[in-house]
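Q: Hi! New to this. If I give you a protein sequence and the SMILES for pyridoxal-5'-phosphate, can you show me the bound structure?
A: Yes, paste them in.
Q: Okay, here:
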Amino acid sequence: VIKVNVPFVDLGTQYRKLETEILTGIKGVCEPSSFILGSEVQTFEKAFAEYCGTRYCIGVSSGCDALLIALLACGIGCGDEVITAANTYIATALAISMAGATPVLVDCDEYYQINVNSIERAITDNTRAVMPVHLYGHPAHMHAVMDIADRYNLNVIEDAAQAHGAMYHSRRCGSMGDAGCFSFYPGKNLGAYGDGGAVVTDNPEIAEFACRYRNYGQTKKYHHAIRGWNCRLDTLQAAVLNCKLQYLDEWNEMRRNHARRYCDQLKGLPVKCPVEQKECRHIYHLFVIQTEQRNALSAYLKDKEISCGIHYPIPVHLQTAYSDSGYGRGDFPVTEQFSERILSLPMFPELADDQIDYICESIRSFFEQ
Ligand SMILES: *Cc1c(COP(=O)(O)O)cnc(C)c1O
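A: Thanks. Here is the predicted structure of the protein with pyridoxal-5'-phosphate bound:
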């Protein structure tokens, strides 16, 4: 095999393909100087709501803000508990903390999703919501989550920051709970050219709250109904997203093809490949394998100029930021074990077949050495 450098994510190739379209979109914002809540924001909100199959979409400044706004819209705050997964990006827990509530963590199952059997055990009199994360682009077990939420009268806020276009029993991720929260961080499956996020919902009260909150609580100019904040979706970012949303399904399909090729070629090796569960459409934001020799394999691949990632090396409950949470090592054994075994291989739509072949051959040679 010829040695080829494989980045973990490559945003440049995609930009070069879309350059004319993107720059036209950006010009459309700059020429009329419609920088704040310009028409591109509304255009995007309408298109993304339609894409998700929800009545409303409210563009905000980041995924983290989307989560915070959804929590506040549900009236969650001081003294409340919100149940989420220990094996998520820290933003999920931070949003709960920022709302004034307490993140109550539970372990994950073998598919990396929140362990629905643990949710019920974590419920107390103070529990107000569950925040499932569709981790890596695979849906969480929403039927079970919704069933528990119904029985205990809890809100469900989906962290769909890694799951743009993922499906669960023919529903889009983000469209099943009270609200769904998306991030448009550049590396996400639908990524802006800077920060961005969105809340999607069918609930008109949540939509109205979000729409006001992100713009200082404003109902009309200089009239403020609530104490909101400035966390609007930037119009330039909306212009980029309008262009890129058209390609999301195609890009997700390309990721799915890459995942198939990876799994085929890694067969027989001592690595565990991701599994797409029944009635689920995985959109492979990340392609995460597991091996007991994670660190050695990662170093070996780095030497072959293949960049990998670890999502995530330190679970939320072991972060210094949560050292006062009362959690400690041993509390979430599956999450902790996975954090030492998981490795994210390069995954982006423009990844070439010969790059995947090179990666898989390198992994094979690692285990044969
Ligand atoms: C990216 C991400 C977020 C945060 O999104 P930002 O736009 O970076 O604020 C939240 N949750 C998960 C699971 C993420 O992957």
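A: Residues 62-64, 88-89, 91-92, 133, 159, 161-162, 183, 185, 195, 197 surround pyridoxal-5'-phosphate (CB under 6 Å). Let me know if you'd like me to explain how to read the tokens.
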